[in-house]
Amino acid sequence: MAPPDPIVNIVGLSKTFGVNTVLKDVGLTVHAGEVHGLLGENGSGKSTLIKVLAGFHEPDPGAALQVRGRDVSLPISSGGFREIGISFVHQDLALVPDLTVLENLCVGSTIAASRPWISWRRERAIARKLFAEYGLDIDPDALVSSLDATDRALLAILRAVQDLGDRRTLLVLDEPTVFLPREGTDLLFSVVREIVSDSTAAVLFVSHDLDEVLEHTDRVTVLRDGVSQGTHRTADLTPSTLIDLIVGERIDAAERPRPVSVRDQGEPPLAAITGLRTAIVDTLDLSVRPGEIVGLTGIAGSGYADVLPALYGASRATAGALQLGGDALDLRSITPVEALAAKIVYVPPKRKVDGSAPELTVAENVTLPILGRFVNPKTLGALAARIADQCDVRPRDPHAVYGSLSGGNQQKALIGKWLQTDPRLILLAEPTQGVDIGARARIFDILRYTATQGAGIFVASSDYEQLAVLCDRVIVMAHGQVATELSGELLSKHHISDSVLGATREEVNV
User: Fold this and answer.
1) Domain at 255-343+424-510, CATH homologous superfamily
2) pLDDT for res 343
3) DSSP assignment of 198-247, as one string?
4) What pLDDT, on the 0 to 100 scale, is given for residue 445?
5) Comparing 361 with 92, which gets the higher pLDDT?
6) Does domain 6-247 have CATH number 3.40.640.10?
């Protein structure tokens, strides 16, 4: 069968900033009724392409855009993407937590409307009909702050769909699943499939999660260093061929033999947690040996995500003790200051909110832990440059604004910031969330090397492949307790997934 006519067609798209070429003669063709993946490392040009579609950037002369067979003048005017039927859902979702679901749904139409009043009864009925159409049970009068991560993402997507009305052409989803629990992505993609089911619209899906891309897209376009590597049928791709397209050289992080702890497996623990209790965790005992990387996982609400902040004092434990070398720490009263003094460091899952000051420079961010020892700006700059070099932070400019870095480079800088303190116990929550395949491999190498120096590392993650590749042991939690422990031949993505699902079924039957 001949392919359908393109619903969106981009030809000859280039974009330069000064002497830097970010996009070079890129083409993109999206067909009606398809979910089309847009892939590439951080800095490959994906965000620039999306910003051209949004009218934020003006492309270089020579680019052409057609929507439903009609020529569209470039650059697109501010807000003009709505007139041609394109809408966007970005990673941060752009929701207002203190407003209701209904108020968030109506904010776009209210701004655009000429009438001076709103019929909330009518808008509430429209909202209920919209949710029912996609099989969702969301209360229009609930505060957005009360919704879980999955419902927030779905709300942002349906708001984008509703804002376009009958003009719906292309929905651009820019990493909407980054902060979702694993079980929430299936529901999101069922809604995405419903959106394209009548073949009148298409979805452009941007993601670093190769499993999601391979499972849920029809075709993919790959950018590398601003140049298109072509468009491919997803069914014709494998994880390794997709990695080759994205990176240009084999990165076998997912295929390397899992490292075995450099220490004797019979060696006493470096850190031993006993009787940890929180609002969710129920009397947990846990340990890590020197040089060992231990993973924690489970479904949302199982307790695995609550362990690390409790060990650091970022959240309150109701009981528990931590023996770290010769130090005995009471987890009921431990504070981050005390944790740092004991050489415990914590990298939280939301690096921009909890782990950094995005408006400060890279140098100011990475030197925060040692400001009490250094005050000379030249010394701080040199130290920041050394951390950037060791952790491959790009660009190598310590004066660059931290928030301007790509997600992978932000995370490498954040990890480097804490490793300079020579920690004994490292706590990492979702360390490669929203990170491209190249940065992910580099982070793995950094953590493996750090483990060989004798540190103990806990990794809490919903990324089963990451845990299988990185960890010596993986603890699966359910009901706030340990459901099972995996190691050796059982330490694979498949076995971790089965164990989590098995623990989930047991929870349901309790």
Assistant:
1) P-loop containing nucleotide triphosphate hydrolases (3.40.50.300)
2) 96
3) TSS-EEEEE-S-HHHHHHH-SEEEEEETTEEEEEEEGGG--HHHHHHHHH
4) 93
5) 361
6) no
